[in-house]
């Protein structure tokens, strides 16, 4: 059976507060791009710290929605968990919004890495599409100025099924083994969730 770890809101806040000085120094973002739904709460907490710790006092959060393929009738076992689907994306001017910016992509957990890989490669396509609207002489500089970084609250140390472009700035709140993390926003009874988290911390 997969071991579970219950994570509290305070745990997440604390992990973010510990990592943000490094993010502020090494990759001060122009935009936070939350992957919903798990990236929403972390991104909002990060905004508080990054507005304080960087020159960007008006740092904003954008959102995209991605989920790993939900099994539907007739889906083969191999297909399940192989595909990432978009449930929400930036507007038709996605490339325009991001071009020339340092974009920090935020999610709660990096498991197989498929979601992060999908996000970066699709956003890069939006950038390339936008670059076509610019004179060729400007494209290289604009492409170079557009950077994607990653922040996840938890990174599972396990073989990843997809890769990020070499050199992508990558930050995690904590690195763990291959556990199943129970996040507080999934709990119906938050007190029971917190009690379980406390019990696990003591054991
Ligand atoms: P990926 O395998 O693409 O890195 O992760 C995809 C998504 O699976 C995550 O964004 C998250 O929604 C979900 N996921 C992966 N591992 C866990 C986990 O340990 N706990 C929870 N609650 N969700 C997870």
- Low confidence ranges: none
What is the percent of helical residues? Answer: 25-40%
Strand order of the largest sheet: 4-3-2-5-6-7
CATH topology: Rossmann fold
Biggest sheet overview: 6 strands, mixed
Q: Please report the number of helical segments.
A: 6
Small molecules in complex: guanosine-5'-monophosphate
Count of separate structural domains: 1
**Whole-Å distance between the termini?**
18 Å
- The H/E string reads EHEHEEHEHHEEEH
SSE-based structural type: alpha/beta
**Mean pLDDT over the residues:** 93
Rg, Å, rounded: 18 Å
- Total strands: the figure is 8
CATH architecture: 3-Layer(aba) Sandwich
Task: Report the β-strand fraction as a percent range.
Answer: 25-35%
Shape estimate: globular
Task: Write up what this structure looks like.
- The model has no long low-confidence stretch (mean pLDDT 93).
- The protein has 203 residues and is an alpha/beta fold.
- α1 (9-26) crosses α2 (40-53).
- The longest helix is centred in the N-terminal third of the chain and has 18 residues, at 9-26.
- The chain has one domain (9-176): 3-Layer(aba) Sandwich (Rossmann fold), CATH 3.40.50.2020.
- A 6-stranded mixed beta sheet has the order 4-3-2-5-6-7.
- The chain has helices at residues 9-26, 40-53, 94-98, 114-131, 136-145, 190-202, and strands spanning 4-6, 31-36, 60-68, 84-88, 102-110, 147-156, 170-176, 180-182.
- β2, α2 and β3 form a beta-alpha-beta unit.
- The two termini are 18 Å apart.
- The radius of gyration is 18 Å and the shape is globular.
- Residues 38, 68, 107, 109-115, 180-181, 183 line the site of guanosine-5'-monophosphate (5GP).
